[in-house]
Specification:
164 residues, alpha+beta, Jelly Rolls, 8-stranded antiparallel beta sheet, two-stranded antiparallel sheet, 2 helices, 35% strand, globular, binds manganese (II) ion
C-alpha cells in the first residue's frame, strides 16, 4: 500500500511537472507569435475546416453592401495554415501586413509573401493563399465588385502542393 501511494505521488508529481512545462511552452509560443506578428486588428473568427487547412481567423472590416460593393477584411493564418483552392468572380487584392506566407495561382510557381507585399489575383482565377510553415501571416483582403460574386470554394491544398 505504501509503495502504491509512493508510485501514485510520483506520477502525480510528474503530471504536475509536465502540465507546468506545457503551459510555459504555450506561453512562450504565444509570446513568440505576438512578437513575430504585428496584429493590427482583432484575431476574429476561426475559418471553417471545410475551407481552410490549419487555423485561419477572419475579421471583417468593411461589410459587403449594394453601394460600395467591396468586401474588406483581415485574415490571420497560423504557421502552416492556408485556404482551399478558390476563385473570386471579380478578383482579389491582398496586402500583407505581417509575417510570411504564400500565394499561388494554379499552374504558376508559389509566390512568397512578406510584410508590405501587395498581390492581385485576376477574376475567375483558381488560387490559394496562406502562411509559411514556420511563421504565420496577417493579410488584408479586398474583394471588389461583389455584385459579381465573392468567392467560389474548391478542394483543399494538399501537403504536396503546399510544400512544393
Ligand atoms: Mn483569394
Amino acid at each position: 500500500m505504501k509503495v502504491s501511494i509512493k508510485v501514485f505521488s510520483a506520477m502525480a508529481f510528474t503530471l504536475i511537472l509536465l502540465s507546468c512545462q506545457e503551459e510555459s511552452y504555450q506561453e512562450e509560443t504565444q509570446t513568440q507569435i505576438e512578437e513575430e506578428l504585428d496584429a493590427i486588428f482583432p484575431q476574429g473568427q476561426k475559418g471553417s475546416e471545410d475551407l481552410f487547412t490549419g487555423n485561419a481567423y477572419n475579421y471583417g472590416l468593411v461589410p459587403n453592401d449594394s453601394s460600395l460593393t467591396t468586401l474588406i477584411g483581415n485574415v490571420y493564418f497560423e504557421p502552416g495554415a492556408r485556404s482551399n483552392w478558390h476563385s473570386h468572380p471579380a478578383g482579389q487584392i491582398l496586402i500583407i501586413t505581417s509575417g510570411k506566407g504564400y500565394h499561388q495561382i494554379e499552374g504558376q510557381p508559389k509566390q512568397e509573401l512578406k510584410k508590405g507585399d501587395v498581390v492581385t489575383c485576376p477574376p475567375n482565377t483558381k488560387h490559394w493563399h496562406g502562411a509559411s510553415q514556420d511563421m504565420g501571416m496577417q493579410q488584408l483582403y479586398i474583394i471588389p465588385n461583389t455584385e459579381k460574386g465573392i468567392v467560389e470554394w474548391m478542394e483543399a491544398v494538399s501537403e504536396e502542393q503546399y510544400t512544393n
